[in-house]
Amino acid sequence: MPPTPAAAVAVTDLVVDRGKKPVLKNVSTAIAAGSVTGLLGPSGSGKTTFIRAVVGTQQVKSGTVEVLGHPAGSKPLRRRVAYVTQDASIYRDLSVKANVAYFAALYGKNRHEAMHAVERVGMGDHADRLAGNLSGGQKTRTSLACALVIEPEVLVLDEPTVGLDPVIREELWDQFRELARQGATLLVSSHVMDEADRCDRLLLLREGRFIADDTPADLRASTGTDNLEAAFLHLIRSLEGVN
């Protein structure tokens, strides 16, 4: 396998329209390998559209998206990129372990590896429960296990912590950080600003444009603010000409 490039994801002048309305407007960024990048912005700002472009399921008008040196969504990436949607992509009539075993089989993994993924997300005690009977947080963990079983080099998560209690959110973020320490590249979308400090780098998206692409520390320093929510508000007001 060729070495992973320094930029695991490279987006250049990306334009996406929905109907006649522009959703993403000439956005560009480079996401470093082995990092956790937060994609933050209000609902409707274009986060899910950007994520879909990265995983190769979004039709684009112009621009390029490369992942691990290949065009997004191309065949060489099928075993290297995993996508966890906002709504858990699992089968309600299967148990937790059966769900993960199914996805494992699709990628040539065995049941032992599937169970390891179940344990990895803290669902070992619930492995025999039907997915339809799980709580929201447990469904999210199960969906994550289905993605982790392929051992992806790039893991893309669309608002994985929405609606979860603080304890589960904390545990999930600990898992995300550990994956990055092991070399995976994570792109995590959220509209919750207090999650931003957990990321190595932030992409702040508003109305289809990046208004910031920086580390949390540098973003606070450049805006002269003490927290990232204040930094985000400062950037918005600056763009709108509000003092």
Mind explaining what this structure looks like?
Keywords: ATP-binding, Nucleotide-binding. It comes from Glycomyces harbinensis. Residues 9-232 form the ABC transporter domain. The chain has 7 helices and 10 strands. A hairpin with a 2-residue loop joins strand 1 and strand 2 (21-32). It has a domain at 1-68 and 154-160 and 179-243: Rossmann fold, CATH 3.40.50.300. It has a 6-stranded mixed β-sheet, with helices on both faces. Strands 2-1-4-5 form a 4-stranded antiparallel β-sheet, covered by helices on one side. The protein is of the alpha/beta class and 243 residues long. The longest helix is centred in the last third of the chain and has 16 residues, at 166-181. The radius of gyration is 18 Å and the shape is globular. Helix 2 (96-106) packs across helix 3 (111-120) and helix 6 (216-223) packs across helix 7 (228-239).
**How would you sum up the global shape?**
globular
Query: What composes the largest sheet?
Result: 6 strands, mixed
Residues in helix, % = 25-40%
Span between termini: 52 Å
Short description:
It is built from 7 helices and 10 strands.
Write the layout of secondary structure elements.
Layout: E1 7-18, E2 21-32, E3 36-40, H1 47-55, E4 62-67, E5 70-71, E6 81-84, H2 96-106, H3 111-120, H4 136-148, E7 154-158, H5 166-181, E8 185-190, E9 201-206, E10 209-214, H6 216-223, H7 228-239
Parallel strand pairs: 3-8, 3-9, 6-7, 7-8
Antiparallel strand pairs: 1-2, 1-4, 4-5, 9-10
Task: Using brief descriptors, characterize the structure shown.
alpha/beta; 26% strand; 4-stranded antiparallel sheet; 243 residues; Rossmann fold
